[in-house]
Design a protein that fits this description.
The chain has no helices and 54 strands. The protein is mainly beta.
């Protein structure tokens, strides 16, 4: 019989504020344990949470979501990474800590004595699969896909489950596009997530010779972590700071189009992790932002309609919610926190939630020139007092926005050289409201020829603009916003003079916080009338170089990242020291240009457990990062 040693404490967290359309049922703490991904299994009227943990997999009966009960614990190698999927009555577990593919026969539930063993599929000419980062099951065809393996630098390996699901057998591999971190596979089609190399769409009908449909396509943050398909739409996540859940039209797999991208919390720097689609909802783990439900019934106009913040921290970093599972027949959602905070900073946490799936309210339309009827690009469309960020129309003149909750609002459209137009609209849950807008050209006292904005190394923004002719112009209010919806006037530039031509202006802001900033000009006539300019956006970077080791405490496969907003062509020096920082265990120089996030080489495989110091030198910046190897 399996030894039961989990201490469960169930209570309502008092720190959680972000909670919409999800109800807390319980939380189970795993004292001193780090959690990874989760999956679910249903049989005999019971619902079971399969919880990946650093020393194995816990199985909890959550049929009563208010009182989970531990049933069994399946031991495995010590590693922070555990990924789990099911097929029939079997669970498949992989880890970067080794053990090949661990197969657990769940047929013995609700008993605690379960049969399990490890399988090491033999890849022709390449040896055995000893480890993998992630996995997925093509339930339609009965094949297991393994990602981030020890074979050929981490390419996907395909195993046959049809003959004997308890003993997966090697069937083929996909050699293209290098390391594959994760993926979705169904009906002989693989959607591989290749981190910095985009997404591959692969026909795997012939397992011995998979064929690309086309070239891999990039995702917004160029660090594709996982993929999930729903009909003709594919959804992806990028495991980087301030990342997005993104949607793509894959009706033609040789010509994929980005449809939309969204954050759980606008303006957040949190990292999105895993997304799963259920009934046209994307249920997604978002590290420090918790669990989000995104209505993706209109994949080109996604909207967050549910959220539950499982973690009291915020911002970037690999802490908080690792995984989520939404497929229980009861509708129950489970979510795993790697560890908690405060008194539970060293304890893994399993949240059990009850969702209320609600459709969004959608508003879409076309902005045109009232005189010509042509689509009008560059118009700014905003829904006042709605909490939705406004948007600038592209070449097509189309706009689209959505929100959680309906009601009456004012739709405003503006563009330099046109009269601003306000239109009353009423939004309803689950309803698409179409509102076209025809903007009337205005006879303006100012003919603006240029308006630009750019960031500086001092974390300020410099705005410059020029006019061809000014008449009856009082001047320009300089306005800024963090979300392109809520605007603040931060300065004023008086007119260069009545009747003047070819005037040039410049305005520099005070120091700004890192992130996205939006700017516009409000041109004021002497009569008191005003006209808004087009909007310009600037990304302000935190110029301090930052080094992140994830996870920390680290394992043999720890990942190290350097983040900087500076364009740094300088050579990077990376050195590893024992705790005292006196003698370098190794040191290497990297010739690269660093902007944003770059992964650094660091292998801890040959070093014993203990305290270490990682020193990174970029130009004049020296960053010392202490960490622990377990």
């Amino acid at each position: 019989m399996s030894r039961i040693y989990l201490l469960s404490i169930l209570l309502l967290p008092v720190f959680l504020q972000a909670q919409t359309n999800m109800t807390f049922r319980s939380v189970t703490y795993f004292p001193g344990h780090v959690l990874a991904n989760v999956w679910g299994y249903t049989a005999g009227g019971h619902e079971y949470a399969l919880v990946g943990e650093e020393t194995g997999m816990f199985i909890l009966d959550i049929t009563n979501p208010d009182a989970p009960v531990q049933v069994a614990m399946i031991p495995g190698p010590t590693s922070d990474w555990k990924e789990i999927k099911t097929y029939q009555h079997y669970a498949y577990i992989v880890s970067e800590g080794g053990m090949g593919v661990q197969v657990v026969d769940l047929n013995g539930l609700p008993g605690s004595s379960l049969t399990y063993h490890s399988v090491y599929p033999t890849v022709t000419g390449q040896g055995n699969v000893t480890k993998a980062h992630a996995l997925h099951v093509d339930e339609v065809k009965g094949y297991l896909y393994l990602y981030g393996t020890n074979i050929q630098g981490g390419i996907p390996i395909i195993c046959n489950l049809n003959a004997d699901p308890y003993n997966p057998v090697y069937a083929g591999k996909y050699n293209g596009n290098g390391y594959c971190h994760d993926g979705y596979a169904s009906n002989d089609t693989l959607f591989g997530a290749h981190l910095g190399n985009g997404v591959s769409i692969v026909n795997t009908t012939n397992k011995a010779n998979p064929v690309n449909y086309g070239a891999p396509f990039p995702t917004p943050n160029n660090f594709t972590h996982n993929t999930w398909r729903s009909g003709n739409a594919l959804f992806t996540t990028d495991e980087t700071s301030a990342s997005f859940l993104s949607s793509y039209d894959i009706s033609d797999p040789t010509d994929v189009d980005l449809l939309d991208k969204i954050k759980a919390v606008p303006g957040s720097n949190a990292i999105v992790h895993n997304t799963y689609i259920k009934n046209n909802y994307a249920v997604t783990s978002w590290y420090k932002d918790g669990v989000a439900i995104v209505d993706v019934s209109r994949p080109a106009n996604m909207v967050v309609t549910g959220i539950y913040d499982t973690y009291s921290g915020s911002g970037a970093g690999f802490s908080g919610c690792w995984g989520v599972y939404p497929y229980f027949p009861s509708g129950t959602i489970i979510a795993s926190n790697i560890t908690g905070t405060g008194a539970h900073a060293n304890d893994g946490e399993l949240y059990v939630l009850t969702p209320n799936y609600v459709r969004g309210c959608y508003l879409e339309g076309l902005v045109t020139d009232a005189n010509t009827g042509n689509p009008l690009p560059g118009a700014f469309v905003e829904l006042l007092s709605s909490g939705i960020a406004g948007e600038i129309t592209p070449t097509s003149g189309l706009y689209k926005m959505a929100r959680n909750g309906g009601g009456p609002f004012t739709l405003r459209a503006s563009k330099t050289g046109y009269y601003t137009q306000d239109i009353p609209v009423t939004l309803s849950t689950g309803v698409l409201t179409t509102q076209n807008i025809a903007l009337v050209p205005a006879g303006l006292p100012v003919e603006m020829t240029r308006f630009d904005a750019k960031g500086t190394d001092n974390q300020t923004a410099i705005l410059t603009w020029e006019t061809a002719l000014e008449k009856d112009n009082a001047g320009f209010d300089i306005q800024c916003s963090r979300n392109s919806s809520d605007w603040e006037t931060i300065g004023f530039k008086a007119s260069c003079g009545d009747g003047r031509t070819n005037c040039s202006y410049q305005f520099e802001t005070s120091q700004l916080q890192a992130g996205e900033w939006y700017f516009r000009l409000n041109q004021r006539d002497n009569s008191g009338a005003s006209t808004l300019s087009d909007i310009r956006n600037v990304t302000i970077y935190d110029n301090r170089v930052k080094v992140t080791i994830a996870p920390n405490p680290a394992g043999a496969a720890a990942r190290t990242f350097i983040n900087t907003g500076k364009d740094s062509p300088e050579e990077i020096t990376v050195a590893l020291y024992a705790e005292n920082g006196q003698n370098a265990l190794f040191s290497t120089n990297i010739s690269t240009s660093v902007t944003g996030q770059t992964e650094l080489p660091l292998s801890m495989e040959n070093y014993p457990a203990g305290y270490y110091l990682l020193r990174v030198i970029v130009g004049n910046d020296v960053i010392n990062t202490p960490f622990i190897k377990k």
